[in-house]
Amino acid sequence: MAAKLIKGAEVAREIRAELKEEVELIRSKCGVVPGLVTILVGEDPASQSYVRGKQKTAHELGFHSVQDSQPADLSEEKLLALIDRYNKDPQIHGILVQLPLPRHISENRILLAIDPRKDVDAFHPVNVGKLVIGDPDYLPCTPAGIQELMVRSGIQVEGAEVVVVGRSNIVGKPISIMLMQKGRGANATVTVCHTRTRDVKSHCRRADILIVAAGVTEYVKGDWLKEGAVVVDVGVNEVGMTPEGKRILKGDVAFDEAVQVAGAITPVPGGVGPMTITMLMKNTVRACKLQGNIED
């Protein structure tokens, strides 16, 4: 029997409807709306697409939304000055600098320049540290999307054997920390696999929940899975184009094989992807409330 599909697009719509109501409540009671600026340096097509998606969602939710596009030759000093201006702007509650940046700009220096209170990507070391000790202001967007997707899909995380394939700062490390914490959608036993792990397959076969963020097309095969496991595929790999010019995307899991073994699985596209932008919007709403001392 084929696995149940965990459809992130449906869950994302549900959360966005809740956020839209919250934004309207904040506006009517406090006279403010969440403000988000997305800063794009250069004209990378993928980055332009991601930023458009973020701006479109922000507008739909009623945010004060600013798109600040800058040329690829913008100096690091001018970008730092721009961030400083938005750090001081009371109408802006969240600042997102779209990565990757041109090579002449230090990503680390730029991320450190963002006020941690406005760091709605949750990449600043202050926010990473607060996550580790279990007292986060904001959760990193993709891991938060994974956790929320499992909670709202009725997946039992507490006590589960979770295996995470990948140790990036964006997905692997934070999701492993989040799932081992005490709290809603957590309390799991977590193993992290990476490029130096011996026999990744054997670890995967132990997993009640397998989260794959390896960045390798169809890395995990169907016979790597425990019967009935929950599989969360974070990978988005372009493998070609349709005759109509649309991108063909595959995940880090061999879906056609895995769907015959797993109990539940996220598709690519339509699984984790829609949740990431949604959780960015949730962080921006939270930033607005924290900066305005607005109670839940």
Q: Helical element count?
A: 10
CATH topology term of the largest domain: Rossmann fold
For the sheet with most strands, the description reads:
6 strands, parallel
Q: Helix and strand string, N-terminal first?
A: EHEHEHEHHHEHEHEEEEHEH
According to DSSP, the number of beta strands is 11
The CATH C-level name of the largest domain is Alpha Beta
Structural class: alpha/beta
Strand-residue proportion: 15-25%
Written overview of the protein:
The structure is a single chain. This protein is an alpha/beta fold. The chain folds into two domains: 33-118, Leucine Dehydrogenase, chain A, domain 1 (Rossmann fold, 3-Layer(aba) Sandwich); 141-273, NAD(P)-binding Rossmann-like Domain (Rossmann fold, 3-Layer(aba) Sandwich), CATH 3.40.50.720. The chain has helices at residues 8-30, 45-60, 76-87, 107-113, 125-132, 141-152, 172-180, 200-204, 255-258, 273-291, and strands at residues 4-5, 35-41, 64-70, 94-97, 161-165, 189-193, 209-212, 230-233, 237-241, 247-250, 264-265. The strands form three sheets. The chain has a six-stranded parallel beta sheet. It has a three-stranded parallel beta sheet with strand order 3-2-4, sandwiched between helices. A hairpin with a 5-residue loop joins β9 and β10. α1 packs parallel to α10 (273-291). The termini are far apart. The model has no long low-confidence stretch (mean pLDDT 96).
